[in-house]
Design goal:
Layout (H helix, E strand, L loop, with lengths): L3 H4 L14 H13 L14 H13 L3 E5 L2 H11 L7 E5 L5 H8 L3 E5 L9 H11 L3 E5 L8 H10 L3 E5 L7 E2 L2 E2 L6 E5 L12 E5 L2 H10 L15 H4 L15 H32 L6 E2 L6 E2 L4 E5 L5 H13 L5 E2 L24 H8 L1 E5 L6 H15 L4
Parallel strand pairs: 2-3, 2-4, 4-5, 5-8
Antiparallel strand pairs: 1-9, 6-7, 6-11, 8-9, 10-12, 12-14, 13-14
Helix pairs in contact: 2-10, 3-10, 4-5, 4-8, 10-13
Length: 401
Protein backbone atom coordinates (compact mmCIF):
# COMPACT_ATOMS: atom_id res chain seq x y z
CA UNK A 1 0.00 0.00 0.00
CA UNK A 2 1.42 3.39 -1.03
CA UNK A 3 2.35 5.95 1.56
CA UNK A 4 -0.03 8.93 1.58
CA UNK A 5 2.80 11.24 0.42
CA UNK A 6 3.25 9.18 -2.74
CA UNK A 7 -0.37 9.69 -3.71
CA UNK A 8 -0.29 13.49 -3.66
CA UNK A 9 -0.88 14.91 -7.14
CA UNK A 10 -0.51 18.43 -8.45
CA UNK A 11 -3.53 19.38 -10.56
CA UNK A 12 -2.47 22.81 -11.79
CA UNK A 13 -1.05 23.84 -15.17
CA UNK A 14 2.53 24.97 -15.70
CA UNK A 15 1.55 26.71 -18.95
CA UNK A 16 -1.64 28.55 -17.98
CA UNK A 17 -1.13 32.30 -17.89
CA UNK A 18 -3.28 34.92 -16.20
CA UNK A 19 -6.16 36.39 -18.22
CA UNK A 20 -5.59 39.74 -19.86
CA UNK A 21 -6.37 42.71 -17.59
CA UNK A 22 -9.63 44.49 -18.36
CA UNK A 23 -7.77 47.59 -19.53
CA UNK A 24 -5.90 45.51 -22.15
CA UNK A 25 -9.15 43.96 -23.38
CA UNK A 26 -10.76 47.41 -23.66
CA UNK A 27 -7.75 48.81 -25.53
CA UNK A 28 -7.59 45.83 -27.89
CA UNK A 29 -11.32 46.09 -28.61
CA UNK A 30 -10.92 49.76 -29.50
CA UNK A 31 -8.20 48.89 -32.04
CA UNK A 32 -10.31 46.10 -33.51
CA UNK A 33 -13.29 48.41 -33.84
CA UNK A 34 -11.42 51.13 -35.73
CA UNK A 35 -9.41 48.56 -37.72
CA UNK A 36 -6.11 50.45 -37.87
CA UNK A 37 -3.88 47.56 -36.81
CA UNK A 38 -0.82 48.48 -38.91
CA UNK A 39 1.38 50.80 -36.90
CA UNK A 40 1.55 53.43 -39.66
CA UNK A 41 -2.17 53.34 -40.43
CA UNK A 42 -3.26 56.30 -38.31
CA UNK A 43 -6.10 58.78 -38.23
CA UNK A 44 -5.34 62.51 -38.26
CA UNK A 45 -3.38 63.55 -35.16
CA UNK A 46 -3.41 59.94 -33.86
CA UNK A 47 -0.17 58.78 -32.25
CA UNK A 48 -0.89 55.04 -32.42
CA UNK A 49 -0.58 52.29 -29.84
CA UNK A 50 2.83 51.04 -31.04
CA UNK A 51 4.34 54.51 -30.77
CA UNK A 52 2.79 55.04 -27.34
CA UNK A 53 4.20 51.73 -26.16
CA UNK A 54 7.66 52.78 -27.36
CA UNK A 55 7.42 56.05 -25.44
CA UNK A 56 6.26 54.31 -22.28
CA UNK A 57 8.86 51.54 -22.45
CA UNK A 58 11.65 54.05 -23.05
CA UNK A 59 10.44 55.99 -20.00
CA UNK A 60 10.21 52.80 -17.93
CA UNK A 61 13.77 51.70 -18.75
CA UNK A 62 15.28 55.17 -18.91
CA UNK A 63 16.51 54.56 -22.46
CA UNK A 64 16.69 57.33 -25.04
CA UNK A 65 15.15 55.17 -27.77
CA UNK A 66 12.80 52.18 -27.97
CA UNK A 67 11.53 50.14 -30.91
CA UNK A 68 8.57 47.72 -30.84
CA UNK A 69 8.99 44.64 -33.05
CA UNK A 70 7.49 41.24 -33.75
CA UNK A 71 9.55 39.09 -31.37
CA UNK A 72 12.49 39.02 -29.02
CA UNK A 73 14.44 36.95 -31.52
CA UNK A 74 13.78 39.52 -34.24
CA UNK A 75 15.02 42.24 -31.87
CA UNK A 76 18.27 40.31 -31.31
CA UNK A 77 18.93 39.85 -35.03
CA UNK A 78 18.05 43.49 -35.67
CA UNK A 79 20.51 44.59 -32.98
CA UNK A 80 23.28 42.68 -34.75
CA UNK A 81 22.34 44.10 -38.14
CA UNK A 82 22.20 47.60 -36.68
CA UNK A 83 25.82 47.10 -35.55
CA UNK A 84 26.70 46.05 -39.12
CA UNK A 85 27.94 42.60 -38.12
CA UNK A 86 29.63 40.99 -41.12
CA UNK A 87 29.15 37.50 -42.50
CA UNK A 88 31.22 34.89 -40.62
CA UNK A 89 32.12 37.44 -37.93
CA UNK A 90 32.46 35.84 -34.48
CA UNK A 91 29.90 36.85 -31.86
CA UNK A 92 30.36 35.73 -28.26
CA UNK A 93 27.41 34.37 -26.29
CA UNK A 94 26.63 32.17 -23.28
CA UNK A 95 26.72 28.44 -23.83
CA UNK A 96 23.64 28.20 -21.58
CA UNK A 97 20.89 30.05 -23.39
CA UNK A 98 17.81 29.40 -25.52
CA UNK A 99 17.96 28.64 -29.23
CA UNK A 100 16.78 32.09 -30.48
CA UNK A 101 20.03 33.68 -29.22
CA UNK A 102 22.53 31.71 -31.33
CA UNK A 103 19.75 31.54 -33.91
CA UNK A 104 19.82 35.33 -34.25
CA UNK A 105 23.60 35.25 -34.65
CA UNK A 106 23.42 32.55 -37.32
CA UNK A 107 20.51 34.32 -39.05
CA UNK A 108 22.70 37.31 -39.91
CA UNK A 109 25.48 35.03 -41.17
CA UNK A 110 27.72 35.47 -38.13
CA UNK A 111 29.32 32.68 -36.09
CA UNK A 112 28.32 31.99 -32.47
CA UNK A 113 31.28 31.55 -30.13
CA UNK A 114 30.08 29.90 -26.92
CA UNK A 115 31.42 30.92 -23.51
CA UNK A 116 31.40 28.62 -20.48
CA UNK A 117 28.62 28.80 -17.88
CA UNK A 118 29.16 28.67 -14.12
CA UNK A 119 27.27 26.71 -11.49
CA UNK A 120 25.37 29.95 -10.77
CA UNK A 121 24.05 29.74 -14.38
CA UNK A 122 25.85 32.90 -15.52
CA UNK A 123 28.59 33.52 -18.04
CA UNK A 124 32.11 32.57 -16.89
CA UNK A 125 34.10 35.84 -16.93
CA UNK A 126 37.48 34.08 -17.07
CA UNK A 127 36.41 32.10 -20.12
CA UNK A 128 34.90 35.26 -21.62
CA UNK A 129 38.34 36.89 -21.47
CA UNK A 130 39.94 33.83 -23.07
CA UNK A 131 37.33 33.55 -25.84
CA UNK A 132 37.46 37.29 -26.55
CA UNK A 133 41.22 37.05 -27.07
CA UNK A 134 41.07 33.84 -29.11
CA UNK A 135 38.19 34.85 -31.39
CA UNK A 136 38.83 38.55 -31.89
CA UNK A 137 35.07 39.10 -31.49
CA UNK A 138 33.76 42.65 -31.25
CA UNK A 139 30.32 41.81 -29.86
CA UNK A 140 29.01 39.90 -26.86
CA UNK A 141 25.35 38.88 -27.01
CA UNK A 142 24.83 38.32 -23.30
CA UNK A 143 21.88 36.11 -22.41
CA UNK A 144 20.40 36.63 -18.95
CA UNK A 145 19.16 33.08 -19.18
CA UNK A 146 16.30 32.21 -16.85
CA UNK A 147 16.73 35.53 -15.03
CA UNK A 148 20.30 34.89 -13.87
CA UNK A 149 22.63 37.87 -14.32
CA UNK A 150 26.36 38.07 -13.61
CA UNK A 151 27.96 40.93 -11.72
CA UNK A 152 27.30 43.44 -14.47
CA UNK A 153 29.87 45.96 -13.28
CA UNK A 154 32.60 43.30 -13.54
CA UNK A 155 31.29 42.08 -16.88
CA UNK A 156 31.24 45.58 -18.36
CA UNK A 157 34.80 46.13 -17.15
CA UNK A 158 35.84 42.98 -19.04
CA UNK A 159 33.91 44.15 -22.12
CA UNK A 160 35.58 47.57 -22.04
CA UNK A 161 39.03 46.06 -21.59
CA UNK A 162 38.54 43.82 -24.64
CA UNK A 163 36.63 46.24 -26.86
CA UNK A 164 33.36 44.30 -26.75
CA UNK A 165 30.02 45.87 -27.57
CA UNK A 166 27.39 44.26 -25.32
CA UNK A 167 23.89 43.36 -26.48
CA UNK A 168 21.77 42.21 -23.54
CA UNK A 169 19.16 39.52 -24.09
CA UNK A 170 16.63 40.47 -21.40
CA UNK A 171 13.85 38.08 -22.39
CA UNK A 172 13.91 36.63 -18.85
CA UNK A 173 14.81 39.77 -16.90
CA UNK A 174 12.28 42.42 -17.90
CA UNK A 175 11.40 44.15 -14.65
CA UNK A 176 14.52 42.98 -12.84
CA UNK A 177 17.61 44.95 -11.84
CA UNK A 178 21.35 44.39 -11.49
CA UNK A 179 23.49 46.56 -9.24
CA UNK A 180 20.53 48.91 -8.89
CA UNK A 181 20.00 49.43 -12.62
CA UNK A 182 17.12 48.20 -14.75
CA UNK A 183 18.09 45.04 -16.59
CA UNK A 184 19.23 46.04 -20.06
CA UNK A 185 20.82 49.36 -19.13
CA UNK A 186 24.43 48.23 -18.97
CA UNK A 187 25.08 47.35 -22.62
CA UNK A 188 24.74 49.37 -25.82
CA UNK A 189 21.52 47.57 -26.82
CA UNK A 190 18.98 45.50 -24.91
CA UNK A 191 16.32 43.22 -26.35
CA UNK A 192 13.15 41.99 -24.64
CA UNK A 193 10.44 39.48 -25.46
CA UNK A 194 6.69 39.73 -24.93
CA UNK A 195 5.97 36.13 -25.90
CA UNK A 196 3.27 34.45 -23.81
CA UNK A 197 5.65 32.92 -21.26
CA UNK A 198 7.55 36.16 -20.63
CA UNK A 199 6.75 39.00 -18.24
CA UNK A 200 4.41 40.92 -20.55
CA UNK A 201 2.15 38.82 -22.75
CA UNK A 202 1.18 39.65 -26.33
CA UNK A 203 1.51 36.12 -27.69
CA UNK A 204 4.57 37.18 -29.65
CA UNK A 205 6.39 40.49 -29.64
CA UNK A 206 9.62 42.21 -28.74
CA UNK A 207 11.24 45.49 -27.79
CA UNK A 208 14.70 46.95 -28.43
CA UNK A 209 16.21 49.84 -26.48
CA UNK A 210 19.41 51.85 -26.87
CA UNK A 211 20.88 55.27 -26.15
CA UNK A 212 22.73 55.25 -29.49
CA UNK A 213 20.86 57.35 -32.06
CA UNK A 214 22.56 55.71 -35.07
CA UNK A 215 21.73 52.22 -33.80
CA UNK A 216 18.12 53.26 -33.17
CA UNK A 217 17.81 54.75 -36.67
CA UNK A 218 19.24 51.68 -38.38
CA UNK A 219 17.06 49.34 -36.30
CA UNK A 220 13.94 51.33 -37.16
CA UNK A 221 14.74 51.24 -40.88
CA UNK A 222 15.50 47.53 -40.68
CA UNK A 223 12.11 46.91 -39.05
CA UNK A 224 10.41 48.29 -42.16
CA UNK A 225 9.61 51.95 -41.53
CA UNK A 226 8.81 52.85 -45.17
CA UNK A 227 10.38 56.24 -44.38
CA UNK A 228 7.61 56.89 -41.86
CA UNK A 229 10.09 56.90 -38.99
CA UNK A 230 8.88 60.29 -37.78
CA UNK A 231 5.72 58.53 -36.55
CA UNK A 232 7.69 56.58 -33.95
CA UNK A 233 7.17 57.47 -30.33
CA UNK A 234 10.73 57.06 -29.05
CA UNK A 235 13.02 57.39 -32.06
CA UNK A 236 15.83 59.76 -33.08
CA UNK A 237 15.37 63.04 -34.92
CA UNK A 238 14.68 62.70 -38.64
CA UNK A 239 18.14 64.04 -39.54
CA UNK A 240 19.79 61.00 -37.88
CA UNK A 241 18.18 58.71 -40.46
CA UNK A 242 19.60 60.50 -43.51
CA UNK A 243 22.93 58.63 -43.78
CA UNK A 244 21.15 55.26 -43.51
CA UNK A 245 17.73 55.68 -45.15
CA UNK A 246 18.68 54.54 -48.66
CA UNK A 247 21.25 51.86 -47.80
CA UNK A 248 19.48 49.96 -45.00
CA UNK A 249 17.41 46.96 -46.13
CA UNK A 250 13.81 46.48 -45.02
CA UNK A 251 13.66 43.29 -42.96
CA UNK A 252 10.06 43.78 -41.93
CA UNK A 253 9.29 43.05 -38.31
CA UNK A 254 7.07 45.83 -37.02
CA UNK A 255 4.84 45.40 -34.01
CA UNK A 256 1.19 46.10 -34.80
CA UNK A 257 -1.15 48.36 -32.85
CA UNK A 258 -3.21 45.45 -31.53
CA UNK A 259 -0.34 43.83 -29.69
CA UNK A 260 0.89 47.20 -28.45
CA UNK A 261 -2.59 47.98 -27.10
CA UNK A 262 -2.55 44.70 -25.17
CA UNK A 263 0.91 45.41 -23.75
CA UNK A 264 0.58 49.01 -22.58
CA UNK A 265 -1.74 48.31 -19.60
CA UNK A 266 0.44 45.35 -18.61
CA UNK A 267 3.53 47.54 -18.36
CA UNK A 268 1.88 49.35 -15.45
CA UNK A 269 1.42 45.97 -13.72
CA UNK A 270 5.03 44.82 -14.14
CA UNK A 271 6.35 45.88 -10.69
CA UNK A 272 3.47 44.05 -9.02
CA UNK A 273 4.13 40.96 -11.14
CA UNK A 274 7.82 41.00 -10.23
CA UNK A 275 6.92 41.08 -6.54
CA UNK A 276 4.46 38.19 -6.93
CA UNK A 277 7.03 36.10 -8.82
CA UNK A 278 9.54 36.80 -6.07
CA UNK A 279 7.09 35.45 -3.48
CA UNK A 280 6.52 32.25 -5.50
CA UNK A 281 10.24 31.76 -6.11
CA UNK A 282 11.07 32.32 -2.43
CA UNK A 283 8.39 29.85 -1.37
CA UNK A 284 9.71 27.19 -3.75
CA UNK A 285 13.29 27.78 -2.67
CA UNK A 286 12.40 27.59 1.04
CA UNK A 287 10.40 24.40 0.53
CA UNK A 288 13.19 22.65 -1.40
CA UNK A 289 16.12 23.76 0.73
CA UNK A 290 17.85 20.70 2.15
CA UNK A 291 16.20 18.17 -0.17
CA UNK A 292 18.58 15.22 -0.62
CA UNK A 293 20.82 15.46 -3.68
CA UNK A 294 19.27 18.76 -4.76
CA UNK A 295 21.38 21.91 -4.99
CA UNK A 296 19.78 25.34 -5.18
CA UNK A 297 21.28 28.02 -7.43
CA UNK A 298 23.35 30.65 -5.64
CA UNK A 299 21.74 34.09 -5.67
CA UNK A 300 23.98 36.85 -6.94
CA UNK A 301 24.33 39.90 -4.71
CA UNK A 302 22.90 43.18 -5.98
CA UNK A 303 20.36 41.39 -8.15
CA UNK A 304 16.58 41.64 -8.22
CA UNK A 305 15.66 38.52 -10.12
CA UNK A 306 12.30 37.98 -11.81
CA UNK A 307 11.36 34.54 -10.53
CA UNK A 308 9.12 33.43 -13.37
CA UNK A 309 10.99 30.12 -13.52
CA UNK A 310 12.88 27.96 -11.05
CA UNK A 311 16.07 25.97 -11.52
CA UNK A 312 17.97 23.48 -9.41
CA UNK A 313 20.90 21.11 -9.86
CA UNK A 314 21.23 17.39 -9.18
CA UNK A 315 25.00 17.13 -9.78
CA UNK A 316 25.49 13.72 -8.23
CA UNK A 317 22.85 11.91 -10.28
CA UNK A 318 23.44 10.17 -13.59
CA UNK A 319 21.41 10.77 -16.72
CA UNK A 320 19.16 7.68 -16.58
CA UNK A 321 18.22 8.44 -12.96
CA UNK A 322 17.37 12.08 -13.81
CA UNK A 323 15.31 11.02 -16.83
CA UNK A 324 13.36 8.66 -14.59
CA UNK A 325 13.04 11.37 -11.90
CA UNK A 326 11.53 13.77 -14.46
CA UNK A 327 9.08 11.08 -15.57
CA UNK A 328 8.08 10.25 -11.99
CA UNK A 329 7.44 13.92 -11.20
CA UNK A 330 5.43 14.27 -14.41
CA UNK A 331 3.28 11.30 -13.41
CA UNK A 332 2.35 13.29 -10.32
CA UNK A 333 1.61 16.49 -12.27
CA UNK A 334 4.93 18.32 -11.87
CA UNK A 335 6.47 19.37 -15.20
CA UNK A 336 10.26 19.57 -15.02
CA UNK A 337 12.53 20.22 -17.98
CA UNK A 338 16.02 18.73 -18.12
CA UNK A 339 18.88 20.36 -19.99
CA UNK A 340 21.07 17.26 -19.92
CA UNK A 341 19.15 15.08 -22.36
CA UNK A 342 20.94 13.71 -25.42
CA UNK A 343 18.36 15.10 -27.84
CA UNK A 344 16.67 18.50 -27.84
CA UNK A 345 13.23 18.44 -26.26
CA UNK A 346 10.98 21.50 -26.34
CA UNK A 347 12.87 24.61 -25.27
CA UNK A 348 15.65 22.64 -23.56
CA UNK A 349 18.00 22.43 -26.53
CA UNK A 350 21.62 23.32 -25.74
CA UNK A 351 24.75 24.30 -27.63
CA UNK A 352 25.41 20.58 -28.27
CA UNK A 353 22.23 20.38 -30.35
CA UNK A 354 22.77 23.41 -32.63
CA UNK A 355 24.46 21.91 -35.66
CA UNK A 356 24.63 25.31 -37.41
CA UNK A 357 27.27 26.43 -34.89
CA UNK A 358 30.67 25.09 -33.90
CA UNK A 359 30.49 22.91 -30.80
CA UNK A 360 33.61 23.46 -28.72
CA UNK A 361 34.73 21.54 -25.66
CA UNK A 362 32.97 23.17 -22.69
CA UNK A 363 33.50 20.83 -19.75
CA UNK A 364 32.22 23.22 -17.08
CA UNK A 365 29.01 23.92 -18.98
CA UNK A 366 28.53 20.23 -19.73
CA UNK A 367 28.86 19.41 -16.04
CA UNK A 368 26.26 22.05 -15.12
CA UNK A 369 23.75 21.12 -17.81
CA UNK A 370 24.00 17.40 -17.06
CA UNK A 371 22.19 17.93 -13.76
CA UNK A 372 20.14 21.06 -14.47
CA UNK A 373 16.36 21.00 -14.04
CA UNK A 374 13.94 23.81 -14.76
CA UNK A 375 10.26 24.59 -14.29
CA UNK A 376 7.94 27.50 -14.95
CA UNK A 377 6.28 29.43 -12.13
CA UNK A 378 3.25 31.08 -13.75
CA UNK A 379 1.39 33.71 -11.77
CA UNK A 380 -1.63 31.43 -11.78
CA UNK A 381 0.21 29.44 -9.07
CA UNK A 382 -0.38 30.11 -5.38
CA UNK A 383 2.00 29.73 -2.45
CA UNK A 384 0.07 26.57 -1.55
CA UNK A 385 0.72 25.24 -5.06
CA UNK A 386 4.44 25.76 -4.48
CA UNK A 387 4.24 23.72 -1.28
CA UNK A 388 2.57 20.81 -3.09
CA UNK A 389 5.03 20.93 -6.00
CA UNK A 390 8.00 21.04 -3.65
CA UNK A 391 6.66 18.14 -1.61
CA UNK A 392 6.35 15.99 -4.72
CA UNK A 393 9.88 16.88 -5.83
CA UNK A 394 11.25 16.10 -2.37
CA UNK A 395 9.42 12.75 -2.35
CA UNK A 396 10.90 11.75 -5.68
CA UNK A 397 14.47 12.79 -4.79
CA UNK A 398 14.37 10.01 -2.19
CA UNK A 399 13.69 7.33 -4.79
CA UNK A 400 16.67 4.97 -4.83
CA UNK A 401 16.40 3.98 -8.50
Amino acid sequence: MKDEAETIQFKGSFTQQEPMPDAAITAATAVLKHGRLHRYNLAADEVGEASLLEREFAAYTGADYALAVTSGGYALATALRALDIAADEPVLTNAFTLAPVPGAIAAVGASPVFVETTEALVIDLDDLVAKARESGAKVLMLSHMRGHQPDMDKLMAVAEAHGLVVIEDCAHTMGGTAQGRISGRHGKIACYSTQTYKHLNSGEGGLLITDDADVAARATLLSGSYMLYERHGAGPEASVFEPFRDETPNVSGRMDNLRAAILRPQLELLPNRVARWAALHDAMEDALRGAPGLHLIDRASGLERVGSSFQFLMPDKRGPWIADFVARCAARGVELKWFGAERAHGFTSTYRHWAYADRPLLPRTDSVLAGLLDMRLPLTFTLQDCEVIARIIRDETCFAG
